[in-house]
Amino acid sequence: MIRRTTLALAAALLLSPLAPAQSSTWKPDTAHSGVDFSILHLAISKVRGHFAVSGGEVTFDEKDITKSRVNIAIDVKSVDTQNSMRDDDLKSDHFFDTAKYPTGEFTSTSIKKSKDGLVINGNLTVHGVTKPVVLTVDGPNGPVTGLDKKQHIGFSATTTVDRLAFGLAPSYPASVIGTDVKLTIDLDLAKQ
Predict the structure, then answer these.
(1) Do 92 and 85 meet the contact criterion of CB atoms below 8 Å apart?
(2) Looking at the DSSP assignment, which residues form a beta bridge with residue 137?
(3) Residues 6+ apart with CB under 8 A from 115
(4) CA atoms within 13 A on the CB side of 41
(5) What is the mean pLDDT of residues 113-131?
(6) How far apart are the first and last CA of the chain?
(7) Is 9 helix (H, G, I), strand (E, B) or coil?
(8) Distance separating alpha carbons of residues 131 and 139, to the nearest angstrom
(9) Residue 16: its pLDDT value, please?
(10) Rounded to an integer, what is the distance from CA 72 to the centroid of its chain?
(11) Residue 120 pLDDT
(12) Alpha carbon separation from 189 to 25, 65, 154 (Å, rounded)
């Protein structure tokens, strides 16, 4: 009798459906996502600009957000500082060399909860150079239902990087173009 019960239990476990997945896939709503930057100019004022987010994917673990994964693509060719001459120079081989490196990417390596939100460690690739960065993240905000009838969540992340570490404009001294670049990444993610 015990043997039959054990066999029946084993068969039931093998034939029972697997537990539902605890993660979901979210993609950036590129019309409402972007990367803003600011950098010191002539040591007296900040120049601000914007890059479009062109794609990527977030695997969101709904039971444990620290097990989530982030991969975001940045359209470096979209750089916009509200000055076309400056934008053309930024796209040239003096800076981003977008003919050779048209996109950038952020990929997470770990996610931790903090008292104010999240801390995401990851690798940022720009200008063909990959460096580790730490994002301080507010969010998630939502979810809400968007006009597309999908669930949306939002995040805002900040970090500061050294332009010289990415080989950006090494011939310009810090007195002309600061070395610290503050990045703010705003994401509107739609559940797939």
Answers:
(1) no
(2) 118, 157
(3) none
(4) 9
(5) 96
(6) 48
(7) helix
(8) 24
(9) 42
(10) 4
(11) 98
(12) 9, 15, 6
